[in-house]
Design brief:
Blueprint (H helix, E strand, L loop, with lengths): L3 H15 L42 E3 L8 E2 L4 E2 L5 E5 L3 E3 L16 E3 L5 E9 L4 E5 L6 H11 L15 H8 L10 E4 L16 E2 L5 E4 L5 E8 L6 E12 L1 E2 L22 E2 L40 H10 L1 E2 L2 E2 H6 L9 H8 L8 H10 L5 H5 L5 H16 L5 H5 L10
Parallel strand pairs: 3-15, 5-9
Antiparallel strand pairs: 1-2, 4-8, 5-7, 6-7, 7-13, 9-12, 10-14, 11-13, 12-13, 16-17
Length: 425
């Protein structure tokens, strides 16, 4: 049965394809500042092998770039403005930002191997556990209906949705609920995260391939991925296999182009890449990213006694606490256990997975809104005075002990919050 939301989504899709005006959409074939509603070139690939027969590929021309080529498709992964990156939270994702050559600059083996015909590259990527803030390029949403709905809510440039705006992008819910690819054989979706910045620094220079003749690259944003049991020896994260469409054009990569790893790779491999018309291919807003490690991440609450910022007027602490309370997995409220672990134990993805597993089954959008508004990481429950259950407090205690055993200082030791209670023996 088609729900009212699904009906509205498909109405918007048909309206765009038929050239009917839809409130919130600003498609045009003319100005260089907005995408075209025209259909782009034939993709030359299909995701039917994932068992997703109901999947409808976004074949709209989402970005009018480069100039003179208004048929740039979603899988070109082009960014026109910083607001194109919409912020999401909680879901485990695949990170393909460092993929391409057989051996990357960070010492990881994350190749992107071309399939026969070259329309798809099978990229080895890294699974990021649930809990972290991640980003989606609004221009690169490969599901047609989800793209149209996201643009109708966020504006074509994403500026009405988090982090620049106040709305939650529909693509976040589609990823969380598994409806971006309505089939059971897609485990993860490829997006962007700063989760590995400290282990594999992002290149900011010497990473562009913009001279003609252009080279083929893999556009992995929102590509479908499957989990593997292989643990990457450098990062400690599980590897994932992603089916990334390819595109011929200018691009930038996540690591420096040094030595033999130039723009054109050998051994039937290509870079996982994107192209930004204004600068970097990673998020530059907000000023700090909740839950991210390193200099780009927002800080924890201050040392004890912590200084609790006042919740902004547009944030409902009742809703924040409700999200924590509802994040139940086997009697444990994982919103709390995740906050107690995620921002301090990023070096141990297995421990983060233990603390945050199941968070993606629950809506945590108000939590994300609060942490973005105040510029703090893993702090929403403390700011709003949300109280964990007894069982949750005991699990927080165990997770804090596990961190101390590894030489990690948990939030409890840094600012006196999320200390939990000692379990009864």
């Amino acid at each position: 049965m088609t729900t009212r939301k699904e009906f509205r989504r498909w109405f918007m899709v048909l309206a765009v394809l038929c050239g009917v005006a839809v409130p919130g959409l600003a498609f045009s074939a003319g100005p260089a500042s907005s995408p075209s509603s025209d259909l782009c070139r034939s993709p030359g690939f299909s995701f039917d092998t994932f068992g997703t027969k109901r999947f409808h590929l976004n074949t709209l021309c989402t970005t009018p770039y480069p100039p003179g080529t208004p048929d740039t498709p979603a899988w070109a992964d082009v960014l026109l403005a910083p607001s194109n990156f919409v912020a999401c939270k909680a879901s485990p994702i695949a990170l393909c930002y460092y993929s391409g050559p057989e051996m990357s600059a960070g010492g990881t083996s994350l190749p992107c191997k071309l399939r026969e015909g070259g329309a798809i590259a099978d990229c080895t990527c890294l699974e990021i556990p649930p809990g972290s803030t991640y980003f989606v390029d609004i221009n690169a949403i490969l599901n047609l209906a989800v793209y149209v709905e996201t643009v109708s809510v966020c504006g074509w440039d994403g500026s009405e949705c988090l982090p620049k705006g106040k709305k939650v992008a529909p693509v976040c819910e589609a990823i969380r609920k598994g409806t971006l690819y309505p089939g059971k054989e897609v485990d993860l979706v490829s997006t962007f995260s700063n989760a590995l910045d400290q282990k594999i620094p992002i290149a900011k220079t010497d990473n562009a391939c913009t001279a003609e003749p252009y080279t083929l690259y893999a556009g992995c944003m929102t590509a479908p991925c499957t989990r593997t049991p292989v643990v990457d020896p450098i990062t400690g994260n599980f590897q994932a296999q992603c089916a990334c469409p390819t595109y011929l054009g200018p691009f930038q990569v996540g690591t420096k182009l040094t030595g033999t790893a130039g723009c054109e790779l050998g051994d039937n491999t290509v870079w996982s890449a994107a192209y930004s018309t204004f600068g970097p291919t990673f998020p530059t807003i907000p000023d700090c990213i909740p839950d991210a490690p390193g200099d780009k991440g927002c800080p924890l609450l201050s040392p004890p006694p912590p200084d609790f910022p006042a919740p902004p007027a547009q944030i409902s602490c009742n809703k924040v606490c409700s999200e924590y309370k509802k994040s139940n997995r086997k009697g444990i409220q994982v919103g709390f256990t995740c906050d107690a672990t995620l921002c301090t134990a990023a070096s141990d993805p297995a421990l983060v997975t233990r603390a945050c597993a199941g968070l993606d089954k629950h809506d945590v959008s108000e939590i994300l809104k609060l942490e973005l508004a105040v510029g703090k990481s893993c702090a929403a429950s403390q700011i709003c005075g949300c109280e964990p259950s007894k069982k949750t407090n005991e699990e927080i205690w165990r997770l804090n002990d596990a961190q101390r055993y590894e030489g990690i200082s948990p939030q409890c030791d840094q600012n006196g919050t999320l200390c939990g209670t000692k379990p009864r023996r």
